[in-house]
Design brief:
It is a single chain. This protein is mainly beta and 296 residues long. Helices cover 0% and strands 50% of the residues. A hairpin with a 4-residue loop joins strand 16 (164-169) and strand 17 (174-180). A five-stranded mixed β-sheet has the order 1-22-21-20-19, with no helix packed on it. The chain has one domain (5-279): TolB, C-terminal domain (Neuraminidase, 6 Propeller). The protein has strands at residues 5-7, 12-13, 22-28, 33-38, 43-47, 53-57, 62-68, 73-77, 80-84, 91-95, 104-111, 117-123, 132-137, 143-150, 153-158, 164-169, 174-180, 187-195, 203-208, 214-218, 223-227, 233-238, 244-250, 256-261, 275-279, 289-290. The protein has no helices and 26 strands.
Length: 296
């Protein structure tokens, strides 16, 4: 096994306003804007190419977002999945996968190649237990539970051909992959690709590049791991933030990595959550849009 290449990227700051828990960055290639969430604020944040920052206060904790073809945003709130109109400020309820009878909230999510919103939950029990799950939410509100016995569902991403889905559990520290049918959203065989140590970085949010590599935010190690389809860490990006939470590709050529982070004092000094960016020798893929493939 070849030792991973260590890279210290030339990082620039993207936002000056501090975040509590920055998460779920999504690049809208149609408008050249970056969307993200601040989980505990709670707020949806939009960064325009001009540098303008818009914050939209949310009525409950927000875990993740996705883009819609009608320019609304699908948001995962403590109260369920909603469609948010940033112009009118209106919300439209879609589904509440978790319900109120379990101590979990919606966490990491993405729109998949099938046009559905794939959203996982996180245990809010103290200590956390394996009561979380992964759900597939349709535009018509119908919802399917696709995985259970999770603690902190995370790391959703798809291979360039849409035929493999990646998924991690940040607390159980594993990365797995499933065969995936991009037309129906059906999951096939699942297999563990690797487990992580704290020093390697607990696997948080993730993305994939056009060459099929998986980029995982190592939230416990201040680094980003680029991982081969076989599960081998091939590159380690050492970051100037202690707790990176999720990367996404953006910019006009999809060769800029945007990385969110959370507030932490684990290094001995308090560090607010933020968004950083740096250019890489890899190209990302544009995001899928909710409802674009209305299959069952």
């Amino acid at each position: 096994m070849t030792a991973p290449r260590i890279i210290r990227p030339n990082v620039r700051s993207v936002i000056q306003q501090p975040l509590t828990v920055g998460e779920s960055p999504v690049w809208d290639e149609e408008t050249g804007t970056l969307w993200l969430v601040d989980i505990q604020a709670p707020a949806l944040v939009r960064l325009s190419a001009s540098g303008k920052i818009d914050r939209f206060d949310m009525p409950a904790a927000i875990g993740a977002l996705g883009l819609c073809s009608d320019h609304r945003i699908v948001v995962a709130l403590q109260t369920g999945v909603h469609l948010f109109d940033s112009v009118s400020g209106d919300f439209e309820f879609v589904s509440d996968p978790v319900g109120r009878d379990i101590n979990c909230r919606l966490n990491d999510g993405k729109v998949g190649p099938d046009g559905h919103f794939w959203i996982g939950s996180i245990s809010e029990s103290k200590p956390q237990i394996d009561e979380a799950a992964l759900f597939r939410v349709s535009a018509d509100g119908s919802t399917r539970t696709v995985a259970t016995k999770l603690t902190s569902s995370n790391g959703l991403a798809w291979s360039p051909d849409g035929r493999r889905m990646y998924h991690s559990d940040s607390r159980q520290c594993f990365l797995q992959a499933f065969d995936f049918d991009p037309d129906t959203g059906d999951l096939g065989n699942g297999r563990r690709l690797r487990s992580f140590t704290e020093d390697e970085g607990r696997p948080d949010g993730a993305t994939t590049d056009r060459d099929g590599f998986y980029w995982s935010a190592g939230v416990s190690a201040g680094r980003l791991n680029r991982i081969s389809p076989e599960g081998e860490i091939v590159e380690i990006y050492i970051l100037p933030v202690a707790a990176p939470t999720m990367p996404c590709f953006g910019g006009p050529d999809l060769r800029t990595l945007f990385v969110t982070s959370l507030s932490t004092d684990r290094t001995g000094r308090f560090e607010a959550g933020t968004v950083i960016a740096f250019d890489v020798d890899a190209e990302g893929l544009p995001p899928f849009r909710f409802g674009d493939h209305p299959v069952g």
